[in-house]
Design a protein that fits this description.
Layout: H1 3-9, H2 28-44, H3 49-54, H4 58-76, H5 79-90, H6 94-112, H7 114-131, H8 136-151, H9 159-168, H10 172-197, H11 216-234, H12 238-252, H13 254-258, H14 262-280, H15 282-290, H16 296-310, H17 312-319, H18 326-335, H19 345-354, H20 359-383
Helix pairs in contact: 2-14, 4-7, 4-11, 4-12, 4-14, 5-7, 6-7, 6-8, 6-10, 7-8, 7-19, 8-10, 8-19, 8-20, 9-17, 9-18, 10-18, 10-20, 11-12, 16-17, 16-18, 16-20, 17-18
Amino acid sequence: MTKDTAASALPPATAATDTSSPHEGGGNGLLWVLVAVAVLFAFLRPRAPLDWLKLIDWQTVGALAGLLAITQGVEKSGVLQSAAQRLLARTTDLRRLALLLVASAAVLSALVTNDVSLFLLVPLTRVLAAQAHLPLARLVVLEALAVNAGSALTPIGNPQNLYLWHRSGESFAGFMGMMAPTVGVMLFWLFAAVWLLVPRTAIALKPAADSAPVQPRLLALSGLLFVGFVIALDRHWLAAGLAVVFGAYLLFQRRVLRDVDWALLAIIALMFVDLRQLAELPFIAALMTQWPIAEGWRAYLAAIVSSQFISNVPATILLDRYVHDLPALAAGVSVGGFGCVLGSLANLIALRLAKLPHGLREFHRLSVPFLLVCAASALLLRLG
């Protein structure tokens, strides 16, 4: 792909805006679509109320609830504004800033999972855009692509890798070696996209506005809650961790909980309800049985296509029964995180945290071409 061809295939940068409400980023239209699908399933495939609740992965929803609250606490402490000012003072080149943010997202996602990386970086990026004329939508979409790519490298980078790692019996290093070629392809095109889409221009600062003072106590509280909550999640103490997080903010900083994006939690819960029922449909199981997707390029493409409709984590669990080529499945669901916003929960989290108007449209204008390029390149690598 030449530079001119790639540049014409992808959209121009858009100016940053931060005038949207917290619920515009992922689009509450998606929430209502998921509600409508759930209602349709309620008529077509009735089930007891408790069975509906069992469809939801409460560990994931609870973890997101705690992280959303803590992220709000960090934002309201004012430390992000201060950090953004220092970063802009040292990085005056827009492309260099984009490369720094994207590389940080990729590295962090391999170490502390893709969603935690977004909770750390997207709010900072939004504050950077509030202080300078930056293409916020473009930067956030690139960060979403980066965490999907970077998290694919390690067994602990994302939920589907953790599941496949336990199924594979590989060592930690062995699993990384298996994923390294696909991740290398994804990272190559990621940094190529940054190079082509983000111009090497000076960063233009906006007129200085009165910044909120840093609140050290709120920052310290949020930092302690973050460390404690991560430990609680690691030890499977979700209920206790949530009680501490929400109890602490209720006692000391109630406004933090007021601004949590509750609609995002509803979207994630409804995704589990809708997508798991979709995967249970008899004709889906019949298709999986009839199609020759047990191994090779067919398994790889089946994982990509399935991820576009039911997200890559459910696709991993669904296809594991029919696919016997674990490296092909792992590569396919990793690449399948690109493309449709439903391909990975990280995509939705990034857009909601960024509070972007028309975020879904901007995401797909970049992510769909990126999926096509990465899918073809990784397939050629596997065939070669």
